[in-house]
Design goal:
alpha+beta; five-stranded mixed beta sheet; single chain; Alpha-Beta Plaits; 407 residues; binds guanosine-5'-triphosphate; 7 strands; two-stranded antiparallel sheet
Length: 407
């Protein structure tokens, strides 16, 4: 089986392609428990598509918790008024007003950042950093002898570490925030003189324990999110994108086309669609069994991923039908790639479970993806071309009669 990888055209590198998903790994297993540690430790291994789903989820948490913090903060003014001497009130009041303004800013930022991953992460970080900074400021500004009058401030590090468990943070993110809270508590103890006292050590121990519980909650929350995401968007047999995820991805590619070239100038950023169907697949099932058929589908999927580039997208459209989006490839180039794939399939040694060779061929329909058309329309054109390839004898590539193509 040949495995050549074509190089990306230079002009399409570094032009926002990272905003598109990477093709999923073939045969990637759904995982549970400890094996998910790699994915919950940091976001390094997350695909761009999951990063968007993750950010959307994070955003909803930021909005919910930000609202709770913003409401609780002014309520605590009542407690301050009851317990603090008047000369201290102006400090804490000023701090609370600044905290509330900050929280409103975080809420606004999260609300306006629907698809902006970095901004959403930043707003989540600020949501935790603002109350911590408020507490730190109170500790620094108030005279030491007045610190005993503070009621309900000492629990801020505990509240924030507990809040970590509400967010689907990665373990490293939570660990960083948790260590910062432990540092804050240590500073508070050094300031009020309880450092290394029995009560001080107990508080530190409690906060560290709470952090471990939050980290466990983060791990399970994030791994569950990943699992649900994969189940919703990936075909369990081949590990490729499923039909729903493909359609979402098609729209994203079109958005990228528009953003790259500007509205109305379609034709300048060519992208193409390949629709592939295994020939006489029913016969394979009938002759070798359904499970050998499944094996062929996986081998076929594997070949498609190896024949395409990282930014292209390979999806299982249904049954023995697959779709490839070639990003940055016009019709002529797409026909070449399709022919190369057809040839590779013909020459490849597909095998059943006993290593018996199964002859497999594929028919392919090719069309251009226009940036302003409904994705379904392009899929329909590719399907019609595929149908003609089947009708003309199978094991061949057929181009669609594309409208308004100007390469
Ligand atoms: N093993 C296996 N078979 C599948 C799967 N999904 C669909 N099929 C089979 O794929 C076959 C498709 O058959 P047809 O639609 O008649 O197409 P074909 O035999 O490939 O013939 P042409 O497409 O006309 O070349 C059916 O027998 C389905 O049962 C699957 O996930 N695994």
């Amino acid at each position: 089986m040949f495995t050549s990888k074509s190089r990306e055209p230079r002009e399409y590198q570094n032009r926002g392609l990272d905003a598109l998903a990477e093709p999923p790994e073939v045969g990637h297993e759904l995982f549970v428990g400890l094996s998910a540690l790699r994915d919950t430790l940091s976001s390094r291994h997350h695909t761009r598509d999951f990063a968007f789903a993750h950010a959307r989820y994070l955003r909803s948490r930021v909005l919910a918790l930000g609202l709770i913090f913003a409401l609780l903060s002014p309520l605590w003014i009542v407690v301050d008024t009851l317990v603090l001497p008047v000369e201290l009130l102006r400090y804490t009041l000023l701090g609370r007003v600044m905290l509330m303004l900050g929280l409103v800013g975080v809420l606004a930022l999260a609300y306006l950042s629907r698809e902006r991953i970095r901004r959403i992460r930043f707003s989540a970080g600020m949501l935790l950093a603002l109350p911590a900074a408020f507490y730190l400021l109170v500790l620094v500004i108030l005279p030491q002898e007045q610190l005993v009058n503070l009621v309900g401030y000492g629990f801020i590090p505990f509240l924030l570490v507990a809040a970590l468990s509400v967010f689907p943070f990665t373990l490293l993110e939570s660990l960083g925030a948790g260590l910062a809270m432990l540092g804050l508590l240590a500073f508070a103890q050094l300031t009020d003189g309880s450092w290394l006292s029995g009560q001080g050590v107990e508080s530190l121990w409690l906060l560290a324990t709470l952090l471990v519980v939050s980290l466990a909650a983060n791990h399970f929350q994030l791994s569950l999110l990943l699992r649900l995401y994969r189940q919703a968007t990936h075909d369990p047999l081949t590990g490729l994108f499923n039909r729903g995820a493909l359609e979402v991805h098609l729209s994203k590619v079109q958005t990228w086309q528009r953003a790259t070239e500007g509205q109305g100038s379609f034709g300048n950023v060519p992208c193409s669609l390949l629709m592939l169907d295994l020939d006489h697949f029913k016969r394979i099932n009938d002759s070798y069994g359904h499970s050998a058929g499944d094996r062929v589908l996986c081998q076929f999927a594997d070949l498609l991923v190896r024949q395409t580039r990282r930014h292209d997208c390979v999806a299982r459209y249904g049954g023995e039908e697959f779709v490839i989006i070639l990003v940055g490839s016009g019709e002529a180039r797409a026909m070449e790639v399709a022919e190369r794939i057809r040839y590779a399939v013909e020459k490849s040694e597909f095998t059943d479970h006993d290593g018996k060779i199964i002859a497999v061929t594929t028919s392919i329909g090719v069309t251009r993806l226009l940036q302003d058309e409904p994705p379904q329309q392009a899929l329909k054109r590719a399907d019609e071309a595929l149908y003609r390839a089947k009708r003309e004898g199978r094991n061949q590539v057929m181009g669609a009669n594309d409208p308004l193509i100007g390469e």
